[in-house]
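=== Structure Prediction Worksheet ===
Name of assembly: unnamed complex
Input type: mixed (protein and possibly other molecules)
Chain count: two
Listed entries:
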Amino acid sequence: MLLLHRKKMSLSVSHLTKVFGQQRAVDDITFSIEKGEIVGFLGPNGAGKSTTMKMATGYLPATAGSIQVNGLDVATHSIQVRKMMGYLPEHNPLYQDMYVHEYLHFIGKVFEIPGSKLKSRVAEIIELCGLTPEQNKKIEALSKGYRQRVGLAQALIHNPEVLILDEPTTGLDPNQILEIRKLINQISSDKTVIFSTHIMQEVQAICDRVIVINKGEIVADDSVNNLLAAQGQSDVVVEFEGEVNSEDLATLEGVEKVTLIKSGIFRLKAKNGADLRAEVFKFASERKLSLIGLRKEENTLEDIFRSLTVKETVT
Amino acid sequence: MIQVFVKEFNSFLNSLIAYIVIGAFLTGIGLLTWVFPETSVLDYGFADLDTLFSMAPYVFIFLIPAITMKSFAEEKKMGTLELLLTKPLSDWSVVLGKFLATWALVFLALVPTVIYYFSVYKLGNPVGNVDSAGVMGSYIGLALLAMIFSAFGLLASSLTSNQIVSFILAAFLCFLIYMGFDSLSSFGGNAALFIKQFGIIYHYESLSKGLVDSRDVIYFLSVTAFILLTTKVVISSRQW
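=== Predicted Assembly ===
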């Protein structure tokens, strides 16, 4: 039963540890990803995201623990695993002096796509990644967004089952980020995708599930919605015209804590995620105060990320 | 391996590297063999190609490191080595592909000098009075020598991500194995011959007599294999 269960896993990482000299870059992490899942790998810089990905691709060996891709161990079946995997390394290295189609042709050959199919496959992938207008240019002549597309194209050329993308959107402008995200969404329908980022909106936009890693350890591994629900609190920010005593506000039902932001502006923290807006409104009308602002603030993934990663640093 | 070979060779041909290497080699060797009076075959008066075969190794000491200096160093610097080594290519196929591409380029530079042989052949009195076996052996020797130099060039390139360091180190290693042991042997006393046999000159001269001795060929092959193995180990050392 356990074995059967394991087979379904596209990527399973168990007790993975990587030590560089004195530093534990990755410290005993375990997770597995099912076929077809899109997982965001989230963490501050230097958390161990890239190291984990490099180990998953077999570029770096693990100090301890193992990684299996479709049931094959990365350490012992390195070449087979690499054939099933598409990898976009951090900073997207490319052969600058090659032409786009020449480069994709070369990568296709490396993946042993038979010569008869290679030409049509390269054309297909150029089309898919929106590289058609740029295909006859040298890579060094491309803009950053198009280079990123070339990077994605080389990762996709052999139609891999598992796609590992290391910070695919860093350094792009907002339009390009949206385009790359759209592209990832488009190609990921039948693939297992794991991609690292430190941009939270990205995770919200693309992922089913998020793994938050900090200082080499997993601090959260859940679906995006669960994470928001579990950690989510709703605060109410209220603004009055004129002075209000914060102690009066604290007596309101459901209020856990009142913080003074500026004179007349308070942040009310609710118990058990209750909605305080009605209470505050009643309070204001009873005392004939002019309420000029009432806003509910839900915790974003960004706050959760910060609380998870900063909390860990303190303890 | 073949994919890497084709890619590397194409990148030589698509950039200026191939043309500069071939152009510089042929111009230099051509001037030495036919124009400069001290070394010119025409002034020397004997129908042999000693100038070509004695000067070519010195040109190679600078030329081959120049070809190889970027092969790993640049890939390391640009990060493309990670790209290459996470594709289904073994470390060996990357090393061998690059090595063969370098060697093939040197070969390509060497081929046009066959014209020199025909010129000397025709100029001989009587026509054809040239040591053809010696020339043949020398060509084999030169090709094998280029093989060792290419391997050293790759090794130097794999050790650093700085192309200048790579070039100087490779030129030094090539110089050392070509002349170093020969010069050292003069201090060697009884062991002189033994030390001499570590260097290339001893085997190269033996081949240029026109006698292809298996011992010499094995020397070239085994030294190359050893250097390539070291290169492969350096590339794989990320796995430690």
